[in-house]
UniProtKB/TrEMBL annotation:
Entry GO MF terms: NAD binding; UDP-glucose 6-dehydrogenase activity
UniProt organism field: Halopseudomonas litoralis
Name recorded for this polypeptide: UDP-glucose 6-dehydrogenase
Enzyme class, broadest EC rank: oxidoreductase
Keywords for the protein's UniProt record, in alphabetical order: NAD, Oxidoreductase
Gene Ontology biological-process entries: polysaccharide biosynthetic process; UDP-glucuronate biosynthetic process
Length: 431
């Protein structure tokens, strides 16, 4: 089939590459500054595992072509795939309006963008109401983006399940055919109405955020009760009614899509006339949790922080990402700055994004080496659990630091081990 994929999102790049790899002819439409335009040189900055290699392979094979967003779908197009940013809803409607009147009877539009609930149905109306168009031709389906940054390509090619929202049987069958190469182990396609698929995606992220915030509340309570939250977490996860996923307490969650989806769900509840008390509390807990390491530092030094040097390991909102959208590190850094602290930061990928966010400042120093960031520091805060931070040279780290104080925002280090190596250790609910 001939697919035209529109969007600068990670979802767009992954979908285009994966679909091209199964033999489809794919045109990926992106903006001028998209990383997709830099596939043939060393400036391709997206570090998603396996994605760059697959995109380059498909481009060289001639199955993947990169084109500007402004270029309209080709007349050969049989599937229009929308993986646009949330603020591109108007552009999505413009694409519907631009389609010729004589499209194929089974012309398919796949909406993988995170737009408000009900958007797929609105796009369907726009498709059918074009001047001169046959109202029997074409369908818009919802296939929500369930990808996880850092494992996006494997999440598309080896998914646990797909949500497919379609009102027309032939459209459901065509989507199943498109996804067939990634749906062989078992049938993971869950059929539902378009708005049900859209809402399910938001509800999933709302539930995950609720579990995270609940565990953070429990970790804070564990601190006051002299309880080790790690034992509690293992006990909870062993209960099959609860399970182990998303029970890890920490210093808050971030990420553009995850945070935005939770806020969108809360907003949807509010505008429907219902109370969004639970989700609003989830978001408030998360914002408070982003400052938990700062509060521990504040208490340790008896509020005397001015002039101190603090090192941060990790500022990306999650490992394997170069993005800092809503990252806990940002709020933490601002709190440190407000107390006159000089902040030294290391992160394997997110330093350029942090530099752009912060601008030129005397109280922020970025380091390519984690030990250089910790040299002379009064405290080290581990904020993002990159694997390279799990087992550093602790003897060297202690020797480099002015004060051997570590604040583990992700509970990756063992408290007894750290204390045995001469560190003062604070975790999230650990003892």
């Amino acid at each position: 089939m001939f697919l035209e994929v529109y969007g600068d999102t990670l979802c767009a790049l992954v979908s285009a590459a994966a679909m091209a790899s199964t033999g489809h002819q794919v045109t990926l439409h992106v903006s001028a500054d998209s990383v997709a335009n830099k596939l043939d040189n060393d400036d391709f900055s997206l570090r998603e595992p396996g994605l760059a290699a697959l995109m380059l392979e498909q481009k060289r094979a001639g199955r993947l072509v990169v084109a500007p967003l402004s270029v309209l779908p080709d007349s050969q197009c049989t599937v229009l795939w929308l993986a646009l940013a949330p603020d591109a809803l108007e552009f999505a409607h413009q694409l519907m309006d631009s389609l010729p009147a004589n499209i194929d009877p089974e012309f398919l539009v796949v909406n993988q963008s995170t737009f408000p609930v009900g958007t797929t149905e609105a796009l369907q109306r726009g498709l059918l109401n074009r001047p001169g168009a046959d109202s029997r031709f074409g369908a818009v389906v919802s296939v929500p983006d369930l990808l996880t940054e850092g494992a996006a390509l494997s999440g598309f090619t080896r998914p646990t399940h797909w949500l497919v929202g379609a009102d027309m049987p032939w459209a459901s069958r065509l989507v199943a055919e498109l996804l067939r190469p990634f749906n062989r182990r078992r049938d993971g396609i869950m059929q539902m109405r378009p708005r049900e698929a859209e809402f399910t995606k938001l509800a999933i992220n709302g539930m995950l955020a609720t579990r995270l915030s609940y565990m953070n509340d429990m970790a804070n309570l564990a601190d006051s009760l002299d309880v080790d939250i790690e034992r509690v977490r293992q006990g909870m996860g062993a209960d099959t009614r609860i399970g182990e996923a998303y029970l890890y307490p920490g210093c808050g969650f971030g990420g553009l899509s995850f945070s935005r989806d939770v806020m969108s769900l809360a907003s949807t509840l509010h505008h429907s006339g219902l109370q969004a008390q639970l989700l609003e509390e989830v978001l408030q807990i998360n914002e408070r949790q982003k400052e938990t390491l700062f509060r521990k530092l504040w208490q340790h030094f008896d509020t005397q922080l001015e002039g101190r040097k603090v090192a941060l390991w990790g500022v990306a909102f999650k490992p394997e990402s170069a993005r800092i959208d809503h990252a806990p590190a940002l709020k933490l850094i601002e709190a440190l700055w407000a107390q006159g602290v000089q902040v030294h930061v290391h992160d394997p990928r997110a330093l350029p994004a942090l530099a752009e966010w912060a601008g030129e400042r005397d109280d922020l120093v970025l380091h390519d080496d984690p030990y250089a960031a910790a040299a002379g520091a009064d405290a080290l805060m581990l904020v993002t659990e990159w694997k390279s931070y799990w087992s550093p040279d602790f003897a060297r780290l202690k020797a480099e630091m002015a004060v051997p104080l570590v604040l583990d925002g992700r509970n990756v280090w063992d408290p007894a081990f750290m204390k045995g190596r001469g560190f003062v250790y604070y975790g999230i609910g650990r003892r």
